[in-house]
Specification:
The chain is mainly β. It is built from 1 helix and 5 strands. The two termini are 15 Å apart. The N terminus is likely disordered.
């Protein structure tokens, strides 16, 4: 790896991989917390707080009942420019 950087808003956690010398556009491996409620993969125990969830590197959204509130991010592929 020649370069690792963050290049997206706080709702996306991004790791950009590539050589700055050889590429203008870098392919990014990113993750988002924007996951359809019924497609969420549980990442916490019942009663977990938002802070505990985020400290585990997971997403927290308590607005939808009957689905995990603490859940894993979903992968997103995109390009980043440096």
């Amino acid at each position: 790896l020649d370069h690792v950087g963050t290049c997206c808003p706080s709702s996306l956690h991004v790791l950009c991989l590539g050589s700055m010398a050889s590429q203008t556009w870098l392919e990014c491996l990113s993750e988002t917390c924007q996951v359809e409620p019924h497609q969420r993969t549980n990442c916490g125990h019942p009663g977990i707080t938002a802070k505990e969830c985020k400290d585990k590197g997971c997403c927290f959204d308590s607005t939808v009942r009957g689905v995990p509130w603490c859940f894993q991010t979903a992968p997103v592929e995109e390009e980043c420019e440096f």
